[in-house]
Every structure is written in structure tokens, then in C-alpha cells.
Amino acid sequence: MIVNTETIDEFLARRSADVEDAVRTAAETEILPRFRHLAQHEVDQKTGPHDLVTDADRNAELYLTGVLGALLPGSIVVGEEAVHADPAVYAAIQGDAPVWIVDPVDGTRQFVHGDDGFCTLVALARHGELLASWTYAPARAQLATAVRGAGAFLNGERLHADPPAAGRDLEVATSHPDFTTQEQKRALLGLRTDGVAPRPCGSAGLEYLAVARGLLDATVFSWEAAWDHAAGLLLVEEAGGAHLTLTGEPFRITGGNALPFTTARDEATARRIRGLLTTS
């Protein structure tokens, strides 16, 4: 079993390409063949009509669980579908072992409706610290990667979020109202102000990628599920961005965050958005 961060760094230096290959293979064998070809029996609801799961989600996660666990002996895979089947699996994020955090199809609703705005998300963490991430949008031929302290990249090109240009409205992707509490709805009302242009979010992973690319100014999300956030948070951090909860602390993948929280292209924008959320 990997026992310290230094040896995980060595693992990433040796095997990051293998992780990338696993992510690509999962998409090419289990996801893309079903894109715009899903049969009715391959789509199910989990908690309701806005929370869908497909055979692509299930099979891609099973593939990644097997390959990632074998690549890093002693590691644990926490996948969205595994946690849905057994919520106790989620506790591994707080344990001592290295953890792979997997969302096999982020943006399942878009995937089901034939929209190319979906991606596969994989992150590696230990003791709550994000170490590496992979964001793959196969229908758009985009692979974004990040390693802590080594930068963020999209298709091999380094990403720089950079501060927003002065004098224009901040574009902010926010949680859909169906997934917010009444208190969170009140907080989100703070974004309805001059200088801010909020809109509903799509795939969380692709919204984070847009922030890292400097194409979106910020996100505001109201839920904690690590598979939606882990890969993107590291991507944005390594591109120069920042994230803050309502208490002014960075978001923790181990949970217990004051929600909603924001992720932005730079620290100043994150603080501005947080201020709007707390003064509504």
C-alpha cells in the first residue's frame, strides 16, 4: 500500500498516462457507443426525474473501479453509482487510504438527451487533499488534467484562469433551483444584482473546466457530492483560481461545508461572490 505523499507523487509521475488511458477507454467502450443510441431500458431514475442513471454510468464506473484499484494497490474507489448502492462507501474519503473519486458520466441528463455537454471525472485524493484530476469530455475531444503543484492542462496546453476583465458582468453558473433549499435560494438571490449574470449550470465538471479556461467567471453550487467537485476544484486551483464557502474557508471534499460555495477565476472574484451570497 502507498504510505506517504512522496510515493504518491512518484506514482503519478510513472502512471498518470495509464490513468488517462483508463479514462479514455471507459468512455470509448462504455459511454460513446451509447451516446445518442440509448435504449429505453438503459435509462433509470434514482431519486427522481432530474436524477438519471444509465448503463453507460454503471458500466464505465465498474471498468474504472477495476483498473484504478489495480493501478494503485491499497487505494479505494468512491464512485457515484457505488455510493448510491451503498452510502457507506462514501466514508472512505475521510480515511487513510488514497481514494479515487469517480463520476463516470457527469451531466447524465445532457447525455440522455443527446447533448455533448457531459464528461467523465476522476480525482485522486488522500486525507482530504486533492492530488490529481482528470476531466474528459469525449464528445468534445477534450481532456483536462491537473496535478497539485504542477499546473492544469487542456489537451496538453497549460490553463490560466486569469482575473475577469473589468467593466463587464460576471457570468456565474449556479445550482438549479430544484436542488437548493429555501435558505440556499435566498442566498442565491444575492446574485441578482448589477454586475452579475447568473445562469443555471450544466455538467459541473464542464463548468469547472470553463472557469479554469477563463470562459466562465464563477460557479455557485449548493451540494457537496465529491464526485461532482473534486476533479474540477483542483483544475481551477492549478489554473490560478480559488474556492470559498459561506464561512470564507476553502471547500472541503470531506464535507461539513457551509453552503452554497463558490469557485472563481481568482481570489478577488471568489470573495466578491461570497459576499453577495452572505448579504442577501
From TrEMBL:
Catalysed reactions, as listed in the record: a myo-inositol phosphate + H2O = myo-inositol + phosphate
Named cofactor requirement(s): Mg(2+)
Record flagged with keyword Hydrolase: yes
Record key words, sorted: Hydrolase, Magnesium, Metal-binding
Top EC class, one word: hydrolase
GO biological process, alphabetically ordered: inositol metabolic process; phosphatidylinositol phosphate biosynthetic process; signal transduction
KW Amino-acid biosynthesis (keyword) present: no
Superkingdom to which the source organism belongs: Bacteria
One function term, GO molecular function aspect: metal ion binding
Binding of Mg(2+), residues: E80, D103, D106, D228
InterPro entries for this protein: Inositol_monoP_metal-BS, Inositol_monophosphatase-like, Inositol_monophosphatase_CS
EC number annotated for this UniProt entry: 3.1.3.25
Coiled coil: none
Protein name (database record): inositol-phosphate phosphatase
